[in-house]
Automatic annotation (TrEMBL):
It is found in: Mitochondrion. Pfam families: ATP11. Keywords: Mitochondrion, Transit peptide. The gene is Atpaf1. InterPro entries: ATP11 (IPR010591). The keyword GTP-binding does not apply. Its main location: mitochondrion. This is ATPF1 factor. It comes from the Eukaryota.
């Protein structure tokens, strides 16, 4: 009542947000404009491995080195076969974002995964809805395809907000990327296509159903007997 012009302006912005599809944000553009000081520790493969030196080793040896290096660290990591990454990457170009479900003590929390180059940024849906393009990433997966052609592997590691996620929760989100993007099951990948190209048909419960069927999030929810121990 005291400031009708301000009220009207806010209502217009609210209506604009409502018109945007689920999970919409300018997150990828925001990521590219981040201050250099905020760049992650693992920005290039050379910052982790001496690429020229490991080229002399076999794919299996590189895999062992990668796994041994990160096994003592609180993070997510993987060595992805080139063929699987090819499929994942091809689909990521067509469908750069998706909605993932993370089991919580009661219900699920949804995260939007947004590709920016070979980086995959995860942000909670509630933060995107409240903060828009300034919503911070809670988890970033870094994929390094430098050895893909020569060794047939793509290395992956991650950076996460430990105040928001623990390692096994981040691992669940990372596993879901392969579940939805690298699947041979057309019905599963179709959910990704619907989210990107037919948002009005997208159903949250479809993601939860796929996750429960896969069993990926089974270990995240406390058992009913946990309080009795």
């Amino acid at each position: 009542r005291s400031s009708p012009d301000v009220f009207e302006s806010r209502m217009e912005k609210r209506n604009e947000v409502k018109k945007q599809p689920v999970g919409y944000s300018k997150q990828a553009e925001f990521i590219r404009c981040m201050d250099e000081k905020a760049r992650p520790l693992f920005y290039t493969l050379d910052s982790i491995l001496h690429v020229e030196m490991v080229k002399e080793k076999s794919a299996e040896e590189i895999k062992q080195i990668w796994n041994q290096y990160f096994s003592a660290k609180d993070t997510v990591y993987a060595v992805i076969p080139a063929e699987k990454f090819d499929l994942l990457w091809k689909r990521a170009q067509k469908c750069p974002s998706f909605l993932y479900a993370l089991p919580r003590k009661e219900g699920y929390e949804f995260f939007v995964g947004q590709w920016s180059g070979t980086e995959l940024h995860f942000t909670s849906l509630i933060n995107i809805q409240t903060q828009g393009e300034t919503a911070p990433s809670h988890l970033v997966l870094y994929h390094y395809p430098e050895l893909q052609k020569e060794k047939g592997i793509v290395l992956m590691t991650a950076e996460m907000d430990s105040k928001f996620l623990v390692v096994h929760e981040a691992q669940c989100l990372a596993n879901q990327v392969q579940l939805f993007y690298a699947t041979d099951r057309s019905e599963t990948y179709e959910l990704v296509e619907i989210f990107n190209h037919r948002a009005n048909e997208f159903k949250y419960m479809s993601v939860i159903a796929e996750l429960e069927q896969s069993g990926l999030g089974r270990g995240l929810r406390p058992s009913q007997d946990s309080d009795k121990s």
